[in-house]
Amino acid sequence: xxxxxxxxxxxxxxxxxxxxxxxxxxxxxxxxxxxxxxxxxxxxxxxxxxxxxxxxxxxxxxxxxxxxxxxxxxxxxxxxxxxxxxxxxxxxxxxxxxxxxxxxxxxxxxxxxxxxxxxxxxxxxxxxxxxxxxxxxxxxxxxxxxxxxxxxxxxxxxxxxxxxxxxxxxxxxxxxxxxxxxxxxxxxxxxxxxxxxxxxxxxxxxxxxxxxxxxxxxxxxxxxxxxxxxxxxxxxxxxxxxxxxxxxxxxxxxxxxxxxxxxxxxxxxxxxxxxxxxxxxxxxxxxxxxxxxxxxxxxxxxxxxxxxxxxxxxxxxxxxxxxxxxxxxxxxxxxxxxxxxxxxxxxxxxxxxxxxxxxxxxxxxxxxxxxxxxxxxxxxxxxxxxxxxxxxxxxxxxxxxxxxxx
Length: 406
Description:
- The protein is α+β, with helices and mostly antiparallel strands.
- It has 3 domains: 2-168, no CATH class; 198-237, no CATH class; 250-370, Glutaredoxin, CATH 3.40.30.
- 51% of the residues lie in helices and 15% in strands.
- The chain has helices at residues 2-24, 27-40, 50-70, 74-98, 115-134, 145-168, 184-188, 258-263, 281-297, 309-319, 330-336, 370-405, and strands at residues 198-207, 210-215, 227-237, 250-251, 267-273, 300-305, 324-327, 342-347, 350-356.
- The strands form 2 sheets. The chain has a 6-stranded mixed sheet with strand order 4-7-6-5-8-9, with helices on both faces. The protein has a 3-stranded antiparallel sheet with strand order 2-1-3, with no helix packed on it.
- A hairpin with a 2-residue loop joins β1 (198-207) and β2 (210-215).
- The longest helix has 36 residues, at 370-405.
- The radius of gyration is 26 Å and the shape is flat.
- The two termini are 24 Å apart.
C-alpha cells in the first residue's frame, strides 16, 4: 500500500504541475475559457471575475502538484486534491452529457481533450486522490511546519508572478496554431487522404397536404404533383479539421484579401486588436510608427479587428491613425495573439514575429531585413526563458536533494 500511495501521489502531482503550469503561462487563454463556461451556463454576470479566477485556479493547481511531489503539508494537500477532484469530476460528467463547450480546457492549448476523455481521466485521478487522502497521515514531513509553509508561499508567489508576467507580455510557450514558425496556409490545408465531413441530405417534398422526406439522389423530381419545400443537410460523420480553419481577412470594402496576404513574398505586419473599445490606445498609437516604417520600405501593414466600422472611424480620427483596418473573427484574433493590441509579422504566410503591445519594437531598432531582426529577438527571449527555467529547476532539485539528505 505504501508504494501504491507514493505512485498515486507522484502521478497526481506531476499531472497537476503540468496542467497548472501550461495554463499559468497563458492567463488570457484561461480567462477566455472561463468566459466561455459562464456564457454556456448563462452566468454572464460572473465574467468580470474570469481573470482573477483563472489566476487563482491555475496557481492552486500548480501548488497542489508541487506539494504532492515534494510531500509538503500533506494533510492540507490531500484535502485540497480531494476537494479539487470532487468538484471537477461531476462537473466534467455534466459537460460530457450536455457538451456546452467542446474542449474542457483542463490542459489549456497544450493538450486538447474531449469532454468524455476528460471525464474518464478525472475518474482515474479521483481514485488516486482517494488513495492519497487515505494515506495522508502516514507521510513524514521533511521540514518544520514553518519551513513547509515558507516553501508553499514561495512556490505560490513564483507561479503567480510568472502568470502575471505572461499576462503583460506573451506566454512563455505558444501551443496555438499561430506560433512563431507556423505556416498559416499549410495549417489551413487538409492533408491528402484525411477523411472529410460526411453529410446526409434529404429533400422535403409536399403532395396533397402530406410532407415527406426523400434522399437527395432519389426524389420525385419529374413528378410535378410533388412540390419542393426544403432541403435538410445533417452532419453524420465528422472529418479532419485543420488546425487553422477560420482565418480570413476582409477589407472595409468587403474584399477578401486572405490569399494575397498569405502569398506576399515580402513582409506583412498584422496589428491584432480584437475589440477597439478595449484596446490599449498607447499600443494603437505606437503601431502608427511601425506602419510608417512599412510604408517607407514597401511592406504591408493591416490592423485586424472584430469591431464595427462605427467604432473604427471615430478612433482613427481621435488618434490620427492612418493605417488600414480589416475585419477578422474575434475568436480567431484572440487565438492568434494574447494581447489587445498585439503585433504579428508574416513573411509569405509564415509567422516570424509576435509582440505584445508592451513589447512592440522601436522603429529605431528595425532594419529592412525584418527576418534577421526577429530571429535575434527570439533568440534573446529564448535565452531569458531558459535561464529562468534553469533557476527554478535548480531550486527544485536542491530541495529534493535536501529531503533525501535528511
